[in-house]
Write a structure and sequence with these properties.
InterPro entries: TPM_dom. The protein is α/β, with parallel strands linked by helices. The protein has helices at 8-22, 41-51, 80-83, 90-103, 107-125; strands at 28-34, 62-68, 73-78, 142-143. The protein has a single domain, classed as Diaminopimelate Epimerase, Chain A, domain 1. Helices cover 44% and strands 15% of the residues. It starts with 7 loop residues before the first helix and ends with a strand.
Length: 144
């Protein structure tokens, strides 16, 4: 089910949003979809974060958008480098923006909005450095 949430065009738009955000920041953004999430969504997102080796970025500035499609659960998880510099309610405010779209069944738009908002904040704290930046993690959507 998770693989069918987005059309091919929507998947491309999401990946394009990730690439655009990462052109402005050294931060790394990933999207992971699963059909089900047993238990706490933040715990599962933390497991996925580790499996995707997101904690291995040089500046610890990875962001995971985790969605459990069938269970209607999602989480945004930032690594400790980001959490040390963003406002305390930062992830909650992005989630609220995304939920507005999700309630209207606009899942791709909600996700893209979350990616854009994250990218803006990452740009402020982790600007892109043409000489030293490299794409440390895949921009493609992963599925569990």
């Amino acid at each position: 089910m998770a693989e069918k949430l987005f059309t091919d065009k929507e998947k491309k738009s999401i990946v394009d949003a990730i690439k655009a955000a990462e052109m402005e920041t050294s931060g790394e953004i990933q999207v992971h979809l699963e059909s089900h999430c047993k238990g706490n969504v933040l715990d599962r997102a933390a497991d996925v974060f580790e499996k995707l080796k997101m904690h291995k970025t040089k500046l610890r500035n990875g962001v995971l958008f985790y969605l459990a499609v069938e269970d209607h659960k999602f989480a945004i998880l930032g690594d400790k480098g980001i959490n040390a510099v963003v406002p305390e309610d930062f992830w909650d405010s992005i989630k609220e923006e995304m939920i507005k779209n999700f309630k209207e069944k606009k899942f791709a738009q909600g996700l893209i909005r979350g990616i854009e908002l994250s990218g803006k904040e990452l740009k402020e704290h982790f600007p892109y450095d043409e000489d030293s930046d490299e794409n440390e993690l895949s921009d493609e959507i992963s599925f569990g």
